[in-house]
Design brief:
This protein has 436 residues and is of the alpha/beta class. Helices cover 51% and strands 7% of the residues. A six-stranded parallel beta sheet has the order 4-5-6-7-8-9.
């Protein structure tokens, strides 16, 4: 049997595996149905970042997203940057979605109008089921809705497709009285003291559990370091009292916050520890964003996974889903997952950052991390066609890596196919306690 024959057998077996998608931000289908769709519906994130990196002005990007501006006007502004961004993996994912889902072989001056028409025509009830179930063969996707895109309550998430996680950033990124007011509104608890803040956290957790979430999500590395020190209650209370001392009127003004990020850190660290403790109490895993941040001009050092070492040591009974394989710190992430039983490594997003990096990382993880602690796929998209494209890249990457492992004698073929089930379905299903 030729190597191509082996690869084909492995690919065929992997096609039959119903995926557990560990991480999505997909807007609800009902929200999508209320939107005017065209090609530029695919620019809420990822490819848009590469367009800006290629030189597209931020104000022009906002114009591209405005469906009221004529399509041909927006295409003329988009085309020069697209010529450079189309070669990145973000760009290739759009090309893959256009080809597979809409039978458009390229995105160019000749095809963009027809592609936009087809995207618009796909805006019907049942499109999500078609794309996720029938085309991507995704059994269940773990989803965290983003309020700015989709304010769908946890209770209204479509459980035939999704299992929700609850975001906890707002309990950690506290820097002013306005933040406390927002938490009071979310929880229904009047917050006048640190103990009130912890009561509000309890209420939000209890509501999330009642809504049958399968985990909680923390993505504060966009704003601060993942270094969460253990803080005495008195130190956290001192910061709380300082930020709550300012009148609400001042807290809402666009001036520097009453407490700087450096000054707020003890309270933020204290609350992160309590988020983890509540997750342990409710037997919920904690997803933490590590590595590359979406968008442009971020502070990458904030998201280094090694910052989490003390948290992993402190809470051995917790289950941490460390997202994005920590890219570009994937070897350090592998070391964490190898050393700590409570650390799991998740390749969500990585296949569309770089398929090559995803394959090299998966090779390393197979050789360093126990097989039950690797999650090979999470789409991490806001629009459903992106999730489909990512699933195709992930299946292909897993097939290529496992074939190479068989060819060099590292794995037997039967063993490799068993591992594929773990990487793409079984590990995540067990980790999130999914009953689908």
């Amino acid at each position: 049997m030729t190597p191509n024959g082996l690869l084909q057998r492995v690919r065929s077996a992997i096609e039959d595996i119903p995926l557990i998608d560990t991480h999505e931000h997909l807007i609800s289908e009902s929200t999508r149905l209320g939107q005017k769709l065209d090609l530029f519906h695919w620019l809420p994130h990822y490819t848009s970042s590469d367009l800006v990196s290629a030189g597209l002005a931020e104000r022009t990007l906002e114009r591209l997203r405005d469906a009221e501006i004529p399509l041909e006007v927006r295409w003329a502004e988009f085309a020069p940057a697209w010529a450079n961004a189309r070669t990145t993996a973000y760009g290739r994912s759009l090309l893959l979605a256009a080809r597979d889902l809409f039978e458009i072989d390229d995105i160019n001056a000749v095809t963009y109008q027809r592609l936009s028409e087809k995207i618009s025509a796909s805006n019907y009830k049942g499109w999500y089921h078609h794309v996720l179930k029938q085309r991507a063969n995704i059994e269940c996707a773990v989803v965290q809705s983003l309020e700015e895109f989709d304010p769908t309550p946890l209770e209204e998430v479509d459980r035939s497709l999704f299992a929700p996680v609850a975001a906890m950033n707002d309990f950690i990124l506290l820097c002013g009285r306005a933040d406390l007011a927002a938490l009071a509104l979310r929880s229904g608890v009047a917050i006048h003291s640190l103990s009130d803040l912890l009561q509000a956290l309890d209420v939000v957790f209890e509501r999330a559990v009642a809504a049958h979430v399968v985990g909680v999500k923390v993505s504060v590395a966009y704003a601060r370091s993942l270094d969460f020190e253990k803080v005495a209650q008195a130190d956290a209370e001192r910061v709380f009292n300082q930020l709550s001392r300012y009148p609400p009127m001042l807290a809402a003004m666009p001036s520097p916050p009453p407490v700087s990020w450096a000054e707020a850190k003890p309270l933020q660290d204290y609350m992160m520890h309590h988020v983890v403790r509540r997750a342990i109490e409710h037997d919920l895993p904690i997803q933490i964003h590590t590595g590359l941040q979406e968008g442009n001009g971020n502070l990458l050092a904030n998201s280094h996974p090694l910052h989490l070492t003390q948290l992993l040591i402190e809470y051995p009974e917790a289950r941490f889903d460390l997202l994005h394989a920590g890219y570009p710190y994937q070897s350090q992430m592998a070391t964490l997952a190898k050393n700590f039983p409570n650390a799991y490594v998740d390749l969500c997003w990585v296949h569309v950052i770089s398929p090559w990096v995803a394959r090299q990382t998966l090779h390393e993880l197979i050789e360093t991390v126990p097989a039950n602690k690797i999650f090979a796929f999470g789409g991490d998209y806001i629009f459903v066609e992106g999730a489909y494209a990512h699933s195709r890249l992930a299946r292909d990457n897993v097939a290529q890596v496992l074939t190479e492992k068989i060819e060099v004698g590292y794995l037997g073929e039967e063993e490799a196919l068993g591992l594929a089930h773990k990487l793409l379905r079984d590990n995540a299903r067990q980790f999130f306690r999914l009953s689908t």
